[in-house]
Specification:
six-stranded mixed β-sheet
Length: 338
């Protein structure tokens, strides 16, 4: 059935709203925290229909312990003579420019890339990202889980060296092509999310700024978002109470509704304070803990074992990732009347 969809997409008119090019990316890192570094990066540039144009790969000296060598296989000795990120930043940027960044769990790859550019006092030329996990959900692919190996197996793509940035990017590019064509054939709206760059990296505290998106946007960019970041957080910030009653739990496939109680757990690519403000502006209630009344938990690591994720499982609270939450925030249903 998927083959029929792919053939139909090739013959039919391609959706005019789809991007004109993509950069399929994978980065290996020293860890998952905000102060971790990239140790290798790969980019497969593909055209509007997912056909590979070229690819690029580099090691990166992280200037620190390489972290989980047993995963990525890159030792301190192998990385000692590798270029620093600032030395490959221009070439990396050229590979990303004017394209949508595509990655498996794109929120992670984008956040690591954005932080590296901020440290180098530069800005990555990326405006949008597409997560292949989110796309597989949109396509309702019958996957046992959301691992890259499962996506690869579904499309018959051979993995040769898992957790090698170049091979992972190749695998993803090969799996992205039929995914993209299936989406085009089915008229699926691609789950594109905005990329917000980090700027003014100092003392380990990034600050986030919305990228200008059109004429006259520069003045509003700095005023609305330049204050976000750990360094600017107020110690006891209080928001006004949510004016809407809690309509209950979020249901998969339906929109969020004003008044829903939303909790967050773990690291997010968009600064937590900004993400919470967006939710409040949409009419949602920010919950600082998870209870039986919580409508939804947002986390990029549902298996982390934090108190919130454990409680969410015990209460049956729905759990979604940041990418899915960002999509839902675009169309929150009004509170029920009466």
């Amino acid at each position: 059935m998927l083959e029929d969809q792919t053939t139909a997409a090739s013959a039919a008119t391609w959706p005019a709203a789809y991007p004109t090019g993509y950069a399929v990316v994978d980065v290996e890192t020293t860890g998952l925290a905000r102060d971790d570094r990239i140790v290798s990066a790969a980019v497969y540039r593909v055209d509007a229909r997912g056909e590979v144009e070229d690819h690029w790969y580099t090691l990166v000296n992280p200037q620190r312990d390489p972290g989980p060598v047993w995963i990525h296989g890159l030792t301190s000795e192998l990385l000692a003579d590798a270029p620093l990120f600032k030395d490959i930043a221009a070439e990396f940027a050229a590979r990303l420019a004017d394209r949508v960044l595509v990655a498996h769990n794109a929120v992670f790859d984008w956040s690591m890339i954005a932080r590296e550019y901020a440290r180098a006092e530069l800005t990555a030329p990326v405006r949008q990202r597409l997560c292949t996990i989110a796309l597989s959900k949109e396509l309702r692919l019958p996957l046992p889980n959301h691992k890259l190996e499962s996506l690869a197996a579904h499309f018959g793509v051979e993995q040769r060296q898992a957790h090698n940035a170049l091979d992972d990017a190749r695998v993803l590019a090969e799996a992205f092509r039929p995914s993209l064509k299936a989406a085009a054939s089915g008229g699926v709206r691609l789950p594109l999310l905005e990329c917000l760059p980090l700027t003014e990296w100092s003392d380990g505290a990034p600050r986030i700024v919305r990228q200008p998106t059109g004429p006259g946007s520069a003045s509003s960019a700095g005023s609305s978002y330049s204050s976000y970041g750990p360094a600017s957080w107020r110690p006891s910030r209080k928001r006004p109470a949510c004016p809407y009653p809690n309509p209950g739990r979020y249901e998969t496939g339906k929109p969020l509704q004003q008044g829903m109680r939303v909790a967050f757990s773990g690291d997010t690519s968009v600064e937590r304070e900004l993400l919470e403000d967006r939710a409040v502006e949409a009419g949602l209630h920010i919950a600082t803990s998870v209870s039986r009344l919580t409508s939804l938990l947002v986390t990029n690591d549902p298996d982390s074992g934090t108190s919130k994720t454990v409680k969410a499982r015990s209460f049956g609270t729905p759990v979604i990732d940041e990418a899915a939450f960002g999509q839902l925030l675009q169309d929150v249903a009004p509170a029920a009347q009466g």
